[in-house]
Amino acid sequence: MHQEVVNNLESIQGALLRMNRSIQSEGTFGIMKNNRWYKRIVRKGMEQVRLEIFLVSIGHNLYKYHNKRLRLKKAA
Q1: Residue 53: which residues within 8 A CB-CB, separation 6 or more?
Q2: Cβ burial, residue 38 (10 Å; 0-12/13-18/19+)
Q3: Which residues form the Transposase DDE domain (predicted)?
Q4: I want to staple 48 with a disulfide (CB 3.0 to 4.6 A). Which of 4, 33, 43, 74 is the partner?
């Protein structure tokens, strides 16, 4: 089973999937961690952790939406 996993990861398809995954998620988490100073989850329990990540994600999306509206207003 271990050899099958290694073969899948080393295949061309596995390399493409790994590359695509890193492109999709790392940018957003990097922005949250470095630009928004969000370093660690402070709540305990699965429901509270979900709530905290949900709130941080909403804040990130609202920030992006606000900046997009400002850019469109300046361009008009």
Answers
A1: 41
A2: middle
A3: 2-66
A4: 43
